[in-house]
Amino acid sequence: MRIHLITPIVTEGIRTLDDVAPLQSADLTITQSLIATGPVSIECEFDEAMSVPGIVAEAIAAEGSGADALIIDCMGDPGLKAAREVVSIPVLGPSEVSMHLAAMLGHRFSVVTVLDSVVPMIENLAKVYGTSAKLASVRVINIPVLELEASPEKLTQALASASLAAVEEDGAHAIVLGCTGFLGCATAIETALKAKGYDLPVIDPIPATVCVAAGIVRAGLTHSKRTYAHPRSKDLKGYPAINI
Amino acid sequence: MRIHLITPIVTEGIRTLDDVAPLQSADLTITQSLIATGPVSIECEFDEAMSVPGIVAEAIAAEGSGADALIIDCMGDPGLKAAREVVSIPVLGPSEVSMHLAAMLGHRFSVVTVLDSVVPMIENLAKVYGTSAKLASVRVINIPVLELEASPEKLTQALASASLAAVEEDGAHAIVLGCTGFLGCATAIETALKAKGYDLPVIDPIPATVCVAAGIVRAGLTHSKRTYAHPRSKDLKGYPAINI
Amino acid sequence: MRIHLITPIVTEGIRTLDDVAPLQSADLTITQSLIATGPVSIECEFDEAMSVPGIVAEAIAAEGSGADALIIDCMGDPGLKAAREVVSIPVLGPSEVSMHLAAMLGHRFSVVTVLDSVVPMIENLAKVYGTSAKLASVRVINIPVLELEASPEKLTQALASASLAAVEEDGAHAIVLGCTGFLGCATAIETALKAKGYDLPVIDPIPATVCVAAGIVRAGLTHSKRTYAHPRSKDLKGYPAINI
Amino acid sequence: MRIHLITPIVTEGIRTLDDVAPLQSADLTITQSLIATGPVSIECEFDEAMSVPGIVAEAIAAEGSGADALIIDCMGDPGLKAAREVVSIPVLGPSEVSMHLAAMLGHRFSVVTVLDSVVPMIENLAKVYGTSAKLASVRVINIPVLELEASPEKLTQALASASLAAVEEDGAHAIVLGCTGFLGCATAIETALKAKGYDLPVIDPIPATVCVAAGIVRAGLTHSKRTYAHPRSKDLKGYPAINI
Amino acid sequence: MRIHLITPIVTEGIRTLDDVAPLQSADLTITQSLIATGPVSIECEFDEAMSVPGIVAEAIAAEGSGADALIIDCMGDPGLKAAREVVSIPVLGPSEVSMHLAAMLGHRFSVVTVLDSVVPMIENLAKVYGTSAKLASVRVINIPVLELEASPEKLTQALASASLAAVEEDGAHAIVLGCTGFLGCATAIETALKAKGYDLPVIDPIPATVCVAAGIVRAGLTHSKRTYAHPRSKDLKGYPAINI
Amino acid sequence: MRIHLITPIVTEGIRTLDDVAPLQSADLTITQSLIATGPVSIECEFDEAMSVPGIVAEAIAAEGSGADALIIDCMGDPGLKAAREVVSIPVLGPSEVSMHLAAMLGHRFSVVTVLDSVVPMIENLAKVYGTSAKLASVRVINIPVLELEASPEKLTQALASASLAAVEEDGAHAIVLGCTGFLGCATAIETALKAKGYDLPVIDPIPATVCVAAGIVRAGLTHSKRTYAHPRSKDLKGYPAINI
Predict the structure, then answer these.
(1) Model pTM above 0.90
(2) Are B61 and B121 part of one and the same domain?
(3) Does D237 touch chain C (CB under 8 A)?
């Protein structure tokens, strides 16, 4: 089985598969690609919109090259619905998967993310995904995506602090890391919360989504073509890279 | 005052401003443009996604040339949020405006639209816009967008029939026409419903949105920059026409 | 076009049309009347109930004298539904219009109003209007209606302070002024919030409702007679001024 | 204990206490009054609004004469909130009580009422009372209130037929009679449903509300003065009968 | 009429009927039993689950001995649904009854209970009962059930303090005592809140439920057998005390 | 990795692991046990309640013998919350997992189950799990659990027919098989729906839950101990097999 990760930015070097590599096994390979056109990071609706044509192109290519499932590597789940229309293999968004996982594992969950500008995006996703009833809050650490790597320690502290506030003030019983750039931070936050007396899961979206995606492939499931019918055949101007 | 209509398709000739022209007056001018890149019609998530970069480009241009408000001429409201981030003048989506208007004018409303493939899109918009509690149903006439003009009579009959079913079976107290390609059909449907004993408003989205947009401009209002902050300055690859 | 404002109190002198006068134009006249029977101010359910027969009488009279639309000048929207039943021209409540406008302009909004006693009234209106999903909070300034004019400066400060709390503590992205007696205060509050770094719309309900009402008239719309059927003809005791 | 029933119409003779009389006992007396001003029957928002000043006057009088609780004898619960503000003894609406009782006794319930014009009123009450999540449907028999007594047999058949449809098509597990003019019909409907194989409670609102009201008095409870504070003292014009 | 109270624990001596005894009258007798198998106190889902077989056995026995209604003496309402399936007389849960009563008496209510571990249980009950829309919050005093009797003064103070926070911070307009072990504390809390300027009802679940249960019996109502059909006849292993 | 399936009935022979056996692999073993005390099949709340002590005993034993995750083999998810309190390894209910999976794969889903008596149970689970907003309907085939094996062909036809009705009348875009006794039927139903022109996923709960459970274990996740704290240590009467 091969799961392909589409990282929906054009910036090379900031996404590493090292943390998901341990999830590879005899029967699971993980591959990855950036998009050819789009933003350097995703922090608002505009960034998302500009990433979608590139995501669709990568999705078509990945299905064509034999991938068994696709994951869009951003917590805004950009292009999730459009990509599902153009391919038949499962396409998963880490935001949708992580919120549903969190809903299953605890009474209520909070999402801890980067900036104020993405809060409405995540709350709107929850409304569409049907997870609002379990969403306690969305909290931010006020660090832009491209500065996340500057100080891993500062990042972990900010995430732990926001997670603690989510538990104590908002009633969170589980935490979803709200940016795929937080990859690898979950254990440190779980430990920090446990030190305060709170024993709860912190979901690292990309590893969690890889595991669920593998399960969906093994169960022989994919998204509904009743919801995501293949687009009707007609002209498209200005996107020579996209042939559906 | 000038209101600019962005018709988010590349097909020339199917959108006429004749029906909104009567709404022009001494102090209101209406202008319009197509998009330069994108689909020939919008009937699914993929079509929408492909239209957004073109919409954003038109929005920036229209604000630059002095428009006082923008309307996106499609009931999927594609690019509404991205466009609001990049301009300061009010940007309105006919779906959002029509659903809120319908919510104000009657106990519950139905949307009558083209194809099954857009039903989830409209229901999801209702969830995000907060109008789900007033939405009785979304019904379809099963005619693709580019065939709407083939037989105006057949179109009107199909719309009247679906609207009648919405009233009698779903409890609709108002109807929203669910495709901006239905422009000009509202009166005929109102008449057909009245002939069956049902006196209720049928909202023609583009004229209604023009009137509300003019009101918003006169009231000195625009969308919240707390929700739609201008994107942070950073590189964007592959969209030379877009400079924000 | 003539829009008639029904101020649902018996107190002369506290309502001035000066702030909406600028909205008048070559094709828009605004008129106004008090009610003949009812309370001196509206601050609770009892006050509202006592104002409704007077409102209904004014609505019938205004339609009779040729008004094109009616606005009830109170954020409790008293008599809105009863008035819609007895007249055919559009009747608008500033609470319903402002809440839907705010829902369109921002991710979530708060209402800032006079006293604790009206909070349940506004929250219940939101439930009936379908705007609860977008309502962040209702906050009060604890100044009774008839004392609002005593100190304009104190009023503006109280409103700015409550609005700031709504933004910072409740996540409001837009503000609705929750009493029509706050007319004219919106700009000062917007400025005060901007000084704190928050750029968001503050809706002044009467000017905003006048603008939307004009749009509804221009669009040829009115409320659904499926929801608001004319009352069946039958006797009514004790209200000689009301003949429907 | 004395429970006073306020029948909010001016028509003499159509309301009899015979069916609730059996509920009287050594420690429970039931009294009743019509209102002095208002409609001959309640079938729309206008009728309701016109009944409220009369209801408030009766509520004040009944508390003054020593009643222990008040019930408003109409399924629109007109004046419920205003009356609660002006008196301290419990005031109950049969719609609120019956819907909550039905919510407790079955998975979901339907309300069966007179005319289309009251359906939005009842659905809106459900939204305000918090019972929407348990309300399966509101169905009508299309018989005006003043014609209910014309043919008891026709009435019972119409109610049984609408109740059966509510069970089979809407999934009702309990029925609330949606007009206090249906008093005494519950047993016949229960029997008719049982004959079809459906064993479920049919709530007759006035007897049920009398029983719950007696329980509330015995438990020493009344409505919250935090929600229903006594109106601030100020002038009221045109209602000499009302002194609060 | 006889109402039987099933106290779903095996601990003798901590439940007294003294506080409900005053509710007995010429036509109302109250009886009580513990369960034969189960926990010593109920503070989590496991405790609840272990109490249910014992509750079912007591319910069958009580109906067999002629009780007119049953009340399960725990705010988790354990076994409520199972017991309703096996008997025909009304079975009431104090949590369901108290939450619906509170919903009727005030705009919003809070539940004040023992420990964090029961908060999800009560919030989930509210979701199932349809009372979530009226539930402001669930607050805890952090005292285990079996220590409640250790210091009545400390208990009352803790309850008053949590109730005050519910009013001031969560907007509660009514309080529901969230553990039947708090029996008898309501008046002291009402008094403490009144001393702070807040006049609102505090519902003592067992007395309130006894009063409502008596009303339901007098009204001739019981739970819907459409929701709670008698179990199909089949073998059951390991519960010799239960014969349905 | 070993996943243990607890089949919460005492009837031997009707549950086979043959259909999940293909999901076993080099790194995944599946084991199974019945419960020692409880019902012969689960079709109502009473059956569920009687199965829970047995489930808890099996859960403790399975964790003790080294299982990595537990699945409760019934679509009522009996004992899910109690079992999570007493063990630390992930405990999954097929109803919770399948509903969340269906919510991820399509716009809306329906559950097709055995009997009317379980419909409220499944709808209530959806309310607690937060999946109500995505649940189109629950439909039944009216075949008791112990008769499912009598005629596989009749079963498949009944399921296909109910699923088709869910798609055409309720708007389902995905189907969840609502009884774990339907194991192995999913493909036939998918095929039947595809023959009617509907291409959508049919979720077979046990295989799907095994796959997701394996993913959860691989991702290092388990349920929140903030929601499911271990029960406080205290006596328990009548259940010698349970030591926590």
Answers:
(1) yes
(2) no
(3) yes
Q: Which of F104, F107, F109 to mutate to test the interface with B (most CBs of B within 10 A)?
A: F107
Task: For residues C79 and C131, state if they share a domain.
Answer: no
Chain E residues 39-78 within an 8 A CB cutoff of chain F:
39-41, 43-50, 52-54, 56
Minimal C-alpha gap between F133 and chain B (Å): 10
Is position C64 within any domain? Answer: yes
Phi then psi for residue B174, to 5 deg, are -160, 155
- CATH of residue A37: 3.40.50.1860
- Whether E215 sits inside 8 A of D211 (CB atoms) is yes
Size of interface A-B (CB pairs under 8 A): 121
Phi first, then psi, for residue A18 (nearest 5°) are -55, -40
| pLDDT higher than threshold 90 for residue B20 | no
E99 contact D CB<8A: no
Kind of pairing, strands C69-72 and F69-72? unpaired
- Contact (CB, 8 A) for E134 and E98: no
Nearest to B9 by CA among B36, B45, B46: B36
Please check whether residue B226 lies inside any domain of the structure: no
Residues B130 and B163 in one domain: yes
Determine the Cα–Cα distance for residues B74 and B39; give it in Å rounded to an integer.
Answer: 12
Do D62 and D27 lie in one domain? The reply is yes
Q: Cβ distance B40 to B227 under 8 Å?
A: no
Could you tell me if D223 lies within 8 Å of chain F, comparing CB atoms? no
**Structural domain that includes position F126:** 95-206
Which one, of D93, D228, D179, D130, lies nearest residue C48 by Cα? D228
pLDDT at C20: 86
Residues of C in contact with D228 (CB under 8 A): 45
The reply to whether E119 touches chain F by the CB within 8 Å rule is no
Q: Which residues pair with F34 in a beta bridge?
A: F7
Residues C193 and C110 in one domain: yes
Q: Are residues D33 and D74 in the same domain?
A: yes
- The CATH number of residue D119's host domain is 3.40.50.12500
Interface with E, mutate which of F10, F45, F132, F143 (most E CBs under 10 A): F45
The verdict on a CB contact (< 8 Å) between F173 and B120 is: yes
Asked, for residue B182, whether it belongs to a domain, the answer is yes
Write out chain A's pLDDT in tens, 244 residues: 999 999 999 999 888 788 888 899 999 999 999 999 999 999 999 999 999 999 999 999 999 999 999 999 999 999 999 999 999 999 999 999 999 999 999 999 999 999 999 999 999 999 999 999 999 999 999 998 888 888 899 999 999 999 999 999 999 999 999 999 999 999 999 999 999 999 999 999 999 999 999 999 999 999 999 999 999 999 999 999 999 8
- Give the chains touching C; criterion: ≥3 Cβ pairs < 8 Å: A, B, D, E
Contact A58, A89 (CB under 8 A): no
pLDDT over threshold 90, residue E234: yes
| Residue E125: both structure tokens together | 């009950």
Residue with tokens 């009996």: F78
Contact F50 E81 (CB under 8 A): no
Restricting to E residues 140-199, those with a Cβ less than 8 Å away from any Cβ of C are 173
- List pLDDT tens digits, range E90-147: 999 999 999 999 999 999 999 999 999 999 999 999 999 999 999 999 999 999 888 8
Q: What is the pLDDT of residues B162-193, one digit of tens each?
A: 999 999 999 999 999 999 999 999 999 999 99
Which has the closest alpha carbon to C155: C144, C164, C166?
Answer: C144
A 10 A CB-CB count for D5 gives 25
Interface ipTM > 0.90? yes
Nearest CA-CA partner of D3 in D26, D32, D30: D30
Residues of E whose CB is below 8 A from D129: 103-104
**Contact residues, chain F, for D133 at CB < 8 Å:** 127
Domain contains A234: no
